[in-house]
């Protein structure tokens, strides 16, 4: 079966860093773009970053430019989200999602989703 499993979330102080992982199985990983989304309580899910099947990154949230980067390791069927200089407003559940070939900014455009991992930025 198709699975996307996020890990690496936790509690971090403002200015700190976390690296999230998204491990995929059950589909041809290297044919898929992988996006990271986040959702804070009471807010809609928003796109953060995406990496295409051709290893091109797209930023969907201006607030994370210069702080977050995305990468993929097709040999491990894994995508990473490196988050630096974290701010309290980055607090959310972070999800990874898969879409064939190309990145898209809207959640409804993605085929598969993980269960999410909590990121809390607080002093």
Concise structural overview:
By secondary structure, the chain is mainly beta. The chain has strands at 3-7, 10-12, 18-25, 32-39, 46-51, 57-59, 68-73, 78-83, 92-100, 112-113, 117-121. The strands form 2 sheets. Strands 2, 4, 5, 6, 9, 10 and 11 form a 7-stranded mixed beta sheet that branches. Strands 1-3-8-7 form a 4-stranded antiparallel beta sheet, with no helix packed on it.
What does it look like?
This protein is 0% helix and 50% strand. The protein is built from no helices and eleven strands. Strands 2, 4, 5, 6, 9, 10 and 11 form a seven-stranded mixed beta sheet that branches. A four-stranded antiparallel beta sheet has the order 1-3-8-7, with no helix packed on it. The model has no long low-confidence stretch (mean pLDDT 97).
SSE topology:
Layout: E1 3-7, E2 10-12, E3 18-25, E4 32-39, E5 46-51, E6 57-59, E7 68-73, E8 78-83, E9 92-100, E10 112-113, E11 117-121
Parallel strand pairs: 2-11
Antiparallel strand pairs: 1-3, 3-8, 4-5, 4-9, 5-6, 7-8, 9-10, 9-11
Shape: globular
Q: Which range does the strand content fall in?
A: over 45%
Which stretches are poorly predicted, pLDDT < 50 over at least 5 residues? none
Major β-sheet, in short? Answer: 7 strands, mixed
Rounded to the nearest angstrom, the distance between the terminal CA atoms is 40 Å
The class by helix and strand makeup works out as mainly beta
Radius of gyration: 13 Å
What are the secondary-structure elements, in order, as H or E? EEEEEEEEEEE
Mean pLDDT: 97
- What is the number of beta strands? 11
Helix content: under 10%
What's the number of helices?
0
